[in-house]
Amino acid sequence: MTQQQRLNRVLELVSERGSVSIAEIGDALGVSTATVRRDLNTLAEQRLVTRTHGGATALGSGYELPLQYKTARQAEAKVAIARAVAGLVQPGDSVGLNGGTTTSEVARELGRSERLRSRGDAPGVTIVTNALNIAYELSVREHVKIVVTGGVPRRQSYELVGPLVGAALREFSIDTAVLGVDGLSAGFGATTMHEGEAEASREIAAVARRVVIAADATKLGRSTFARICPLSRIDVLVTDQPVSAELAAELAGSSVEIVVAPRS
């Protein structure tokens, strides 16, 4: 296990439990006490955890892993979801993408797609996004036209937030909005951890003719702090495992199509 993988796992443990001891981390990772101490010191220096005498605690109750530490979580599922989402996009379409690891995989899949390559002078696909990392990655793809909203970037997610996001988006009409979420439930619909990101995602959905939620199975049946939109605003859910009967019934009642992405 590399240091980056260890740091990812330590942050996951802190996120899940709120507080962990050095012994618990050592047992979970199979590493020495000295290694755990070094890793915790590294994370504390980066202000990602609060160091305690016997371990570490989360910075607050609304603890959110930074994007760079989420990339390894549910990786296979996210790649499968990205392929399925890309299959919903047609050449010449405009696609709105919010930030996150799943939508970043969707962006990569759109960027690699031979099917979506340009025909003549028109772009193969137009991506409208508030995510700086997505815009950066796709900027080298000749068949992709990138439009970036204004806004103020969040360190945790590389997403632009604030009133400039909506001001830019209201000038566009998008074929499909693809939104990554932190939770999807019958009671609260699509949710995320941060109210600014929720507002930005809501603005993307507002100018789209179709709203697609891209969420792995760990996000289903749970809700987080800030609502993006109710189920009634969602057209398609793309996920990696069959949905529970209860949630499936609620989705059907809101006319949400469910697509379960096959894993290769």
UniProtKB/TrEMBL annotation:
Gene Ontology molecular function: any one: DNA-binding transcription factor activity
Organism, as annotated: Microbacterium betulae
Keywords of this entry: DNA-binding, Transcription, Transcription regulation
Region (Disordered): 96-115
PANTHER family reported for this sequence: AGA OPERON TRANSCRIPTIONAL REPRESSOR-RELATED (PTHR30363:SF44), HTH-TYPE TRANSCRIPTIONAL REGULATOR SRLR-RELATED (PTHR30363)
Residue ranges of domain HTH deoR-type in the record: 3-58
InterPro entries for this protein: Carb_Metab_HTH_regulators, DeoR-like_C, DeoR_HTH, NagB/RpiA_transferase-like, Tscrpt_reg_HTH_DeoR_CS, Tscrpt_reg_IclR_N, WH-like_DNA-bd_sf, WH_DNA-bd_sf
Protein name: DeoR/GlpR family DNA-binding transcription regulator
One Pfam family linked to the record: DeoRC
Compositionally skewed regions (Basic and acidic residues) per UniProt: 106-115
Domain HTH iclR-type: 1-61
